[in-house]
Amino acid sequence: MSRRGQWDAVIVGGGVVGAACALALAQEGLQVAMVEGREPPPWSPQKPDLRVFAFAADNAALLDTLGVWKQVDQARAHAYRRMRVWDAAGGGELSFDADSLGRRELGWIVENGLLVDRLWAALPAAGVQLYCPARVEAMEQDAQGVRLRLDDGRRVEAAIAIAADGGESTLRTLAGLEVSRHDYGQRGVVAYVDSALPNEDTAWQRFLATGPLAVLPFARNRSSIVWTLPDAEGERVLALDEDSFNRELTNAFAGRLGEMRLVSARAAFPLRRQLATAYVAGRVLTLGDAAHVVHPLAGQGVNLGLRDVAGLRDLVRAAKQRRQDWSAPHRLQRWARTRRSENTVAAYSFDAINKVFSNDEMHLTLARGALLGLAGKMPPLMSMFWKRASGL
């Protein structure tokens, strides 16, 4: 450990972003601890996690530098080569293709549980000290560092503490970092389905007046769905018997892949936009969902969180190469300004897309299909959109 028995960094929260942050900082030579309330269940290929991510190329590269991506890819990461976006009201289609962008794939569909499993497996060899099961009860800080009191009576001291404990972050609250919230009044219904026709390694998204329906390739004829619906409609759809659900889903997707049928349980989660008004309070940082929760329509939530981690790793690396203090307040604030700016732009961009497409107002309905078609016919614009989404 560093001076006076401190850790260099303690990460609170052991999800994908928190565990990746612990590994990234340990790889840069820092002494790192991680606090998590419960050990994650082991991933099982026979029980797919309903929560999946459209994983971007820059974050696959990040996990590769952490020595984790190969294990994830070999276990089950389904590459998608195309993306099709269209509006139920008609008009053109927005289409991305890996070949036209000079790539082997556009990204990968990966289960949350698999990512967490492989990241945790790498923690011991990286020298990360794990406090689990344990939760933060109290926090105090000064110019030298942060002191956490855990619910099992232990105390943890570190030069900095990082809140990666999700949208309801305890550490963020203890640090006095406030958030702005907007409830979309929508739910994301998730499940796995089989389709009569192959999904063509394509990530599909159809905009309906009730919200977008995403169909993400998981195997040749198997897909993960994220069906955005108003709260009451989401509850109704969850309560349908399987046959009725299958019919409504097939119709909502316009039969594009033929008949669709459930092959898993269903679940739903409330959708909101939530943004921390600041990312740093003294020596406490916040990142991932603790800093920003966005609409899932573009599948960018975990990608934004991992870009927070990559930015912090780069800060530490650059400072150490110059033999400078990586945890100096001005450096942490510079990281915070950059990440908060990018994440806020992304959050409000997804907000605008959701507002424009998730309604049946006549003037918007007439315009949006044409806009999709126009964008799809402008290669430079398409390339710019994709590079931003993939972090390249």
Describe this protein's structure.
Keywords: FAD, Flavoprotein, Monooxygenase, Oxidoreductase. GO terms for molecular function: 2-octaprenyl-6-methoxyphenol hydroxylase activity; FAD binding. This is 2-octaprenyl-3-methyl-6-methoxy-1,4-benzoquinol hydroxylase. Residues 8-312 form the FAD-binding domain. Its cofactor is FAD. The structure is a single chain. With 392 residues, the protein is of the alpha+beta class. The chain has 2 domains: 3-49 and 57-74 and 112-181 and 272-354, FAD/NAD(P)-binding domain (3-Layer(bba) Sandwich); 76-110 and 185-271 and 360-390, D-Amino Acid Oxidase, subunit A, domain 2 (D-Amino Acid Oxidase, Chain A, domain 2, 2-Layer Sandwich), CATH 3.30.9.10. It is 37% helix and 30% strand. It contains 11 helices and 20 strands. Strands 5, 6, 12, 13, 14, 15, 16, 17 and 20 form a 9-stranded mixed sheet that branches. Strands 1, 2, 8, 9, 10, 11, 18 and 19 form an 8-stranded mixed sheet that branches. The longest helix has 29 residues, at 329-357. The chain is globular and about 60 Å long.
Helix content: 25-40%
Low-confidence stretches: 362-366
End-to-end distance, in Å? Answer: 36 Å
CATH architecture term of the largest domain: 3-Layer(bba) Sandwich
Largest sheet geometry? 9 strands, mixed
Radius of gyration: 21 Å
Structural class per helix/strand content? Answer: alpha+beta
The CATH superfamily of the largest domain bears the name FAD/NAD(P)-binding domain
Strand percentage lies at 25-35%
Total domain modules: 2
Question: How many strand segments?
Answer: 20
CATH topology of the largest domain: FAD/NAD(P)-binding domain
The 3D shape can be described as globular
Count the helices. How many?
A: 11
Name of the CATH first level of the largest domain = Alpha Beta
Please state the average pLDDT score.
91
